[in-house]
């Protein structure tokens, strides 16, 4: 069975895709992202899945996508920001190299503007961001074998820090 060399977790907008691609290049391996798998598999955007079916349905789809990717992929794998909400998913991450890319709320505002394109942050984004992180920070920390803060760092610097942390 294949197994990802690195799994990236962390909040939306932290740069999992950018850093994941850079890490994959540096390690000479492939890059995969469960959000992309879901969009390809469902033939619609993640925002549309949230609107059409709600968050619970999205989480069920996401859980399957993560399980499949963990079993199939042997490169760098980035998970959607909420994938770690699922206890079975967290259990599947045990024993793997999992890097938590972290950022504080001010960095999140700088990077994303916390704009309306993200369905979980459509109303009062700064407050929702804080609430999301309160609920999730300990879950990211629970699954992580390394925590790499991204505040004030370029993607290249974050990639170096992640490689150092491995
Ligand atoms: C989500 C993060 C998104 C995407 C969906 C829900 C979340 O992925 O899966 O919008 O709950 O944090 P990214 O972290 O890749 O943006």
From TrEMBL:
Cofactor binding, per record: Binds 1 Mg(2+) ion per subunit.
Q: Does the keyword DNA repair apply?
A: no
**Annotated binding of ATP, by residue:** 13-18, 118, 153
- Do you know which CDD domains this protein is assigned to? SK (cd00464)
Under Pfam families, the record lists: SKI
Q: What is its main location?
A: cytoplasm
Q: Where in the cell is it found?
A: Cytoplasm
Q: Which residues bind Mg(2+)?
A: 17
Residues binding substrate, per UniProt: 35, 59, 81, 136
Q: Which GO terms describe its molecular function?
A: kinase activity
Using the UniProt record, name the top-level EC class of this enzyme in a single word: transferase
- Name the chemical reaction catalysed here: shikimate + ATP = 3-phosphoshikimate + ADP + H(+)
Which InterPro entries has this protein been placed in?
P-loop_NTPase, Shikimate/glucono_kinase, Shikimate_kinase/TSH1, Shikimate_kinase_CS
Quote the subunit structure annotation: Monomer.
The entry sums up its family as follows: Belongs to the shikimate kinase family.
Q: What is this protein called?
A: Shikimate kinase
Give the organism, scientific name.
Answer: Streptomyces viridosporus T7A
The upper taxonomy is: Bacteria, Bacillati, Actinomycetota, Actinomycetes, Kitasatosporales
